[in-house]
Fold this protein.
Amino acid sequence: MALENILILAAASLLWATTFRNHGRTWFMLIASVVVIFWLQPALPIRGADFFTPVATLVLVVLTWFITTDDETRKQRKNIIILAIVAGVVLLLNLTRFVPQLQLFTASRPPQLETTLLVFLITGLTLIALSRLTRFSASILTVGLVLTIGLFLLIKIPALSLLLSSFLRTLSGQSLTNVSINDFRWMGFSYVAFRLIHTIRDKQSGRFPSVDVGEFITYVIFFPAFTAGPIDRLERFIKDLRAPFAGLTLEAFYSAGQRLLLGLFKKFVIADALALIALNDTNATQVTSTFWMWVIVYAYAFQIYFDFSGYTDIALGIAQLLGIKLPENFASPYLKPNLTQFWNNWHMTLTQWFRAYFFNPITRWLRSWQKPMSIPMMILLTQVATMLLIGFWHGVTWNFTLWGLWHGLGLFIHNRWNDATKAKSAAWATSPTKLAILNVSGILFTFHFVAIGWIFFALSSPITSWQVILKLFGVQ
Amino acid sequence: MNQIKPLNVLIKGLLLFALFNLVIAAWQPGVGQLSLYNVLYPGRERLPFGENPKQSYNLSLFDLDAMFASHVIAGTPKADDEFRVVIVGDSSVWGTLLKPEETLAGQLNADNLNACGKTVRAYNLGYPTISLTKDAMLLSYAVQYNPDLVIWMTTLDAFPLEKQTSTPLVANNVEKVRELATSYQLRVEADDPNFEVKNFWQKTFVGNRRAWADFFRLQIYGVMWSATGIDQVYPSEYEKAQTDFEADESYHDLTAPLSEDNLAINALETGFRVVGETPMLLVNEPMLISSGTNSDIRYNFFYPRWAYDNYREIMTSLSQRNGWMYADLWDIVPANEFTNSAIHLTPAGENMLAENLAPYILENCK
């Protein structure tokens, strides 16, 4: 989100919270979120794609709601009204095609109205077809899960992404000459997919709360958290959404404002300044000395922290203006004395998500084997697999694989080291000074381990990454 | 514990911010003189200039204090055995497409010249816009660093009257130009439309935020300058200087023959007044002499032959009349040693120029 997007959204939220209080608050959040996903979607070279990408988000969200919701809730009349209003908002945005002055919320001129109506028709028919298949809800959930993961892979794997771009270009009658993996950027999809997977898995395990379609859409695409998280849980979000909102108190305004200003400062002053000198593909090969290589690696480490945690602060601040308390995402991660604690405090909602939906289930599964593998082997397997998946979530490339591997192995080694030295450390660190020495050295070591890991994250080539590491240690 | 009243905090915050802006507008602090260059980072070998900061780790700004404070000359006390040469001029001096060591100053330094027992150290104070007034303004800064010799590289295109104040560096430093007018008789029109006179609002922190941001970005890019030694983009390919032309004899709406009245001779004289007793060598810089289509009409992209020939006559006459030290080196570099412009030299071309200038430096030491 650019600064102007953030300021406009914060001002609109503040205005609503102070003027209308609880009247229509959920409607405001729903409609604003729908408009915002169109507004934030960047322009794409494929004709109509920057309009149909947000439409696809909405269709996916509605379909997921449909397959995860119980019969009784699904049949409530208000859902039809909500869907009609959401469709109306999309059609209004589409109609700005004829009024260029009103094309404020779409990256380019919206496409022909007929195409959008056709999408609605297909979605409606799919919903009708699905409603006839409720008896097979368990398998439908599995299909939904597979489709969401499949879509996610389609976006994240460069080769598949290229195929998708080629397909969409062909569909829109465009030449394939300039086809590129950058043709198709689905704004916010990483977060949307995780929220959808979370709801499908919760439904499968019988923990899915009963929500109407408006609440569900608002949860998945809630505008403050749409582009950069945090990844909230549905049952927690709904609690805030349904709680009576007596209007914005001065204390809440102060707290939200403070959070928002802190986020703006972190993102647009500190992170953007650090971005000028942070490690990237270009400067990685230009730096001439070990000292300055460390400086730009440190700059990247702090830039990514201030950028990401700044956006989180902004999201939390805006949400707080509307009475929603989104979960925290960062808790001083660079001040943690070991890698396990680092990951418990960095992008917390993502790690919690992976813990709940991957790490814990796979650990339980491995333990359930008739001849379970050794504990260290199990830890190695689960840690590395989890971190590899977190790496793939950012993109299926060699460098994200190496980054995931680096952290997976790091977590495993820390686990083993901790087991082996815990007693000795406790016996040695008998005074506050010794404890402080242990703590500070742990913080420094962990920070540098993470900072070196960022080299794989920041760069696109393993060879360049290796050259940077060699330079850091004066080998090159 | 006293309870915080958010509204009071907001009002006080806004008042303090407004006060801060008013103080900045009234005080106009010269923060440009503060610099991390020459303290945390090595000074830059040439003045900051860059149209693509993210790639060149350099940017164009208008704060002359900040520009000079970032230059290596500001952090280099003159040693007893140093013969200090400063070179001013346009992009050919600054060194478009050239690494710092390949520029004229870099080549002179590499030659390790010894002038009267002192080591010659040349400083590149060129700036990539063409205007004599801009050069005179930079000279007024250069003299504070006690040069033993000033080399002023120039070309005809720096002389047209309309080019004097239109260059952004001059247009945004109206006070400095007016100082030149007051102290050194530079002729300046009081109502020159090129001058951007700031109102009170534009002097506040908010109104002047671009300059503040530029100042901070210059300091931040010092890291990348130190880390890489890069201060401009070096494309692997570029379009060579034009050698074929239309049969066009026009030059800046001027008619033949050129006269001193049509040119900013006053700015040239101002430059000599600015340096005072310090010896200054005025150089008509090398340019590409084309042999392509219509080269009988035009020497190159910049100049029709009649205008340039007139200009050379005027320069020779002027220097003789005023007793200026003058070197007309217009044709010393062959056409194949120019890069993307009729005045931008290759490293080999700069080397030829340095070899031609070396004798002048050695002759002028005390």
Notes: Chain A has two domains: 23-242, 331-472. Chain A touches chain B at residues 250-251, 253-254, 257, 273, 276-277, 282-283, 286-289, 292-293, 295-296, 299 (CB under 8 Å). Residues 331-472 of chain A form one domain.
